Known about the structure:
Blueprint: H1 12-28, E1 32-35, E2 42-47, H2 50-68, H3 104-116, H4 119-133, H5 137-156, H6 165-177, H7 184-189, H8 221-261, H9 264-275, H10 278-285, H11 289-313, H12 319-334, H13 338-353, H14 359-385, H15 403-413, H16 419-422, H17 427-437, H18 440-461, H19 485-493, H20 497-519, H21 535-540, H22 558-582, H23 589-615, H24 622-635, E3 639-644, E4 648-650, H25 652-658, E5 660-661, E6 680-685, E7 688-695, E8 702-706, E9 715-718, E10 726-730, E11 733-741, H26 743-748, E12 751-759, E13 770-771, E14 773-777, E15 780-784, E16 789-791, E17 796-799, E18 803-810, E19 816-823, E20 828-834, E21 837-843, E22 848-854, E23 861-868, H27 874-877, E24 887-893
Parallel strand pairs: 11-13
Antiparallel strand pairs: 1-2, 2-3, 3-4, 5-12, 6-11, 7-10, 7-12, 8-9, 8-11, 14-15, 15-18, 16-17, 17-24, 18-23, 19-22, 19-24, 20-21, 20-23
Helix pairs in contact: 1-2, 3-23, 5-8, 5-10, 5-20, 6-8, 8-9, 8-11, 8-19, 9-19, 10-20, 11-12, 11-13, 12-13, 12-14, 13-18, 15-18, 15-22, 17-18, 17-19, 20-23, 22-23
Amino acid sequence: MPDILTPIRLHPVAAAALALCTALAAWLSQATVAFTEVAGPRIALLPLSPAALRLSAAAGLVMLAAWRAGASLAPLWLLTLILLPWLPRFMPAVFLIWSGPLVALVWIGVGLSLAASTPALAARAASAARQATARHPALVAAALAFVVYGAAARGVSPSVPGGDEPHYLIIAQSLLSDGDIRIANNHRRGDYRAYFVGDLSKPDYRRRGRNGEIYSIHAPGLPVLVAPAFALGGYPAVVWFLIAVAAAGSGLAWQLAWLVTGRAGAAWFGWAAVTLSTSAVFHSFTVYPDGVGGVLALTGVWALIRAGRDADDGSERIAPWFLHGAALALLPWLHTRFALIAGGFGALILLRLGTNRNAAGKAVAFLLLPAVSAICWIGFFIAVYGTPDPSAPYANEEGSIAFIPGGLAGLLFDQRFGLLAYAPVLVFAFVGLWRMLSTPPRRRLGGELLFVLIPYLLAVTHFAMWWGGTSAPARFVVPMLPLLAIPAAVSWTATHRVTRTTALAALACTAFATAALAFVGGGRMAYNVRQGPALWLEWLSPAADLAHGLPIWWRGREGLLYRDIAIWAAAFAAAAAALRAAGRALRTRGALAATAMAVYALAVMSAVAIDWRVQGIDGATETPAQLAALRRIGAEPRLLALQLPSLRRLRPADVAPRLRIEPSASTTPGGAGQNDRPLYQIPLVPAGTYRLEPRGTRMSGWLMAGIGREQFSLTSGPLAEPPPPIVLEFPVDVRAIVVRGDEQARRSVEGITVTALSVVPTSARLTDDVARRAVRYGHTTVFFLDDRSFAEPEAFWVGGARSSTVALQADRPSGSMPLLVRNGPVQNAVRLSSGGWTVEAALAPGEERRLEVPLQPGRSALLLAISTSAGFRPSEVTSGSLDSRYLGLWVKALD
């Protein structure tokens, strides 16, 4: 049967025209598509910057080069997906998913398909890969992993350390500075300020030790392990040490996959499936025990394989078994739940050793350190808590069997925390496990992997917090993740060419997800919360409601998660079946790759559309798309604005005022009280002037508007009938516009309309940083750009031994802004600077100074950087004070 997508010979003129179309598609894919109002006309913003035009031209030139090299041009049909958002509004809303950064997957698919269909390029690439990895492939795998993990750590550095990471680090500091693990004094001294910008004055514990001292809830194993690195180079050295450990584990995973399959290609697929997954990458450099635990668990698989090989060749060596025992002996010290992994592998290894020569000697060597470690481990809990119970630090936190089904489903599929949601290629690891069980030579190893994997997953999902707290996705799966490289490699050896194409497509999606989370927004999108959808979905496609189109877990509503999983599984099963049926007619690599991408794109759209239909949702998300348009207007100096689908040109300056943003009511829970719960939140608002208009009938109550969840607001007052509009002016980008109200306002306000009266262009911005909170002091508003300052009702404190940056905006600008600064009760060296103005002073305890900070002509705002060399804690100098903040300089804006 002939190939239904056989490459067609093109006349050079036709090839040039096709290259021009490719360049046009590349330009269109950089557009932002938005709505002027709810259910209103659409607009498109296209960049006219030289960089955007060069990128478009490069796409056309690459297409010409691929054509001249003999590539199939069938993959170019995938570019029609880029045109879908430009069709009339009555077309399916699911077409809008291709209007954001998700369109990058289309270009990745086109590029890979063109490369695969270019015989010379594919042959040269394969030859170069074989030569580069021929001598020491496992070392090459480790080196590549080190580069990947290191690059990701650099991209995520603005967001780490966070969550429980500082609590592990402060234990290491206590070991180094005090020689113990009693952490209360380390928190009081603020030792964490060396690597953490926030306030960590409260130790993380639930139960005091038997001596009344505070010991961290976190196990001491990881702090002990990283303490030498911390002593040598602080937190950065710890990060690179953990990356080196994870990279070594990645190289070992390659080696074990090769030992099991005997095929380098399969080993590389298994290596890539695990190494490039979001969970593996993010937990390679974060200070959690799970990454190191995964490497140690992998040594248990190594021991099983070694035992099998020793049984075949009759080896009697004992030394390796001492090292295998040592590795497993470390696991419980990293985390109590890892004891289950160590015990499972220990039992399996002893069974394997029963068929070895010198079995007794090997068993003694293997058990020596684990036995000593187990005694010391139990002794640790007796010494610290007076009980041998390893759960003592957790104050007997209880789980429930009822949590397990939803926890397992969420741990794998939840859009915020699920393993497969970010690494779909690992589906093939589970397929590989099934194949191992059905293949006699590998059946035993497959059963052993399941013997460890299943009890561990049941144990971690038995508790309510199966997602692992504030961490990247699927943290609790990470100790089992390196093991999955082996079944992933096995699945590669037994797959059809069509299935391999699917596997490579899934690998490309996995790498894209990891890169996006690591390099966009400083890694913040990887750290989700339970109260909302996955953070990156709005970025992926602002105009389409992907959050309601993907599986998501909610406590007590697990049935909705199961339903969504079934929808997606059915869509992809149908796509896989259709692709396999068409495989015989797709003989060239390019045609097969292009068809696979098209079929799976259709499966994604079908699953999302069905999910929307089941939930009764239109699928278009006006507010996120409008906000994306506002950010684009502020970020791009030159834009082409078009109205769709008529393509009527608009003035870019007129676009922002035409946007009528009507956000949905906020579902974020309250903090300090009911009035703390936001009514509406509009996230990541660019610098500019905005008008807020409440809507409702017979409105009454009190309304407050600001940019943070704190008690401070920029404006507040009673609601009149009709309510006057609220105007807010931001000299910098702000984290969110947050509207709150009392109970009367909650009952009477039915909606709010936000209009951008103007957006500050890039050339006029004070900074690219985002304000996290803002407070009005008289006729001056202070915008805080970091967490190193502390806002109070009358003024603000800059943290002790800190550098902080704020933006000050005057209601009535003159030539300068007057400030009063007051030093704390310690000697302090301070520095204040704004533009070319700088003041440096050595302040005595309690000393005050009045300063005049100059404003640039024509501006009403300025950027002020403040640094202090010392500080104090009010709780240590004022009797009865409970304020443990470390404060440096008090700053008050004067009218």
